[in-house]
Amino acid sequence: MRETIAYHGAVDPGSIVQEYPPPPMHVMQLSRISEDEAAARTLGRLRRVLDRAAQLPFYSERWAAVGFEPADLRELDQLSALPTFTVHDLRESIDANPPFGLHQSRVGGPHRVLFSGGTTGSPRPVLHSARDREIGEIIQARHLWAAGIGADDVVMNSFGYGPHNAASTMHEALYRWIGALVLPVSTGNVTSSRLQVTMAHQFRATAWIGMSDYLVHLANVARDLGLDPATDFALQTLVVGGDAALASAAWCGVPAYNLYGTYELQTPGGECWARGGVHFSDDAHIVQVRHEETGEPQPDGARGQLIFTSLYNEAFPIVRFNTLDRSALLPVEQCPCGQSSRKIAGFLGRSDTMVKLRGINIYPEDVGRIATEHPGANGEYLCVASRTPGGDDLTLHVELADAVPADEEVIVRWLRERLGVRITVEIERPGALASQTGLGVRTKPVRFRDDRT
Ligand SMILES: [Zn+2]
């Protein structure tokens, strides 16, 4: 007989709800607690996360290097002295110890694994225990609720269902913790845009969630079908990845809100209907902003890199994750939406070279690595990021190899297939890029130019 583990026996929803109240209970429960109580709660949760993290070589080795042990933790300020890590460290950990790396492991009970959306290199797996998942969804549900979504809503979910996190975490939060009816349509590859528009119309959908540029496209499809986005739909709320203002304008002023999330963190932040920043859940995450060069903690209002510590994750405990996203902490104040939690200024760009193409994270270095692999190319390349009304765009310039007669079209097609995402590929003559990359002049040739700012 094979052993089984039933999900419902592995999680204790009663205690989870008490620890991390779902919406709207969280508004009352979290605002009632004093600053001292909140600090004690945070310290207790942080200790548990540190104890768990210390079991993983990814953390124990880094901490040993700075002489830290979890038992040393006396006050929250000590957290700032611990080393940070980035997605590049996670990739290294996975490459050296596939398939999960040394920063995560199963902790008993059923787990979910979801993957980063990187189209170059291997997608990064992220392990979630049942408890991790439930709490992450409660946090997600708080943001969706604060954006105005409730049990009466009929929600079109046009995020891509599949190995990535966005669609499923939204779906679960809406279904399990808000009670909304979700139409799991996914992207246009799964349910055609015409059918999505027809369904939103027929089912009187009141909310639509998805990537901003796709929601803009859907509004245009609606017009093509003879439907007026202003009057023929029951939409009241849009929750989008990307440019919320564009989606709102396309749907004739239906309010659109941004969430903040990463593959590792799920969705720790979200805009509420009162706007004025992105809320976080102080009972679930410690959010710090540090100076990009000095690493010093930044005062309220000053920009820097967003550093996250999760207070609940156990399969992959997250301690001082440098998202490389830029933002600023906003002064603590009571928000008209009722939530008392901390806000940040929202996403103010990347502190490294990552380009978001239609919601997918692209690293120019990875694009370049692929560009150098084709025998018809000589290894010289330049990635140029630019900004268009629809979002970021990336152009890859590739030099041809002298010796190999090459069919340019074949190389372009090969690169596009390997990259797995639509980017512009420009084939260049040998040596044509040298003046831009500084090849032979600079110690390190310029491989990436950012024309977005
Ligand atoms: Zn608010």
Question: Could you please describe the fold and organization of this structure?
Answer:
By secondary structure, the chain is an alpha/beta fold. It has helices at 7-10, 13-19, 25-32, 35-53, 57-65, 87-96, 130-146, 166-178, 193-202, 212-224, 244-250, 364-371, 408-419, 434-437, and strands spanning 111-115, 125-129, 154-157, 181-183, 207-211, 237-241, 256-262, 266-271, 278-280, 285-290, 304-310, 321-327, 343-344, 355-357, 360-362, 377-388, 391-400, 424-428, 448-450. The chain has two domains: 10-344, Rossmann fold, CATH 3.40.50.12780; 355-450, ANL, C-terminal domain (GMP Synthetase, Chain A, domain 3, 2-Layer Sandwich). The protein is built from 14 helices and 19 strands. The structure holds zinc ion. Zinc ion (ZN) binds at residues 146, 272, 274, 279, 335, 337, 339.
Topology:
Blueprint: H1 7-10, H2 13-19, H3 25-32, H4 35-53, H5 57-65, H6 87-96, E1 111-115, E2 125-129, H7 130-146, E3 154-157, H8 166-178, E4 181-183, H9 193-202, E5 207-211, H10 212-224, E6 237-241, H11 244-250, E7 256-262, E8 266-271, E9 278-280, E10 285-290, E11 304-310, E12 321-327, E13 343-344, E14 355-357, E15 360-362, H12 364-371, E16 377-388, E17 391-400, H13 408-419, E18 424-428, H14 434-437, E19 448-450
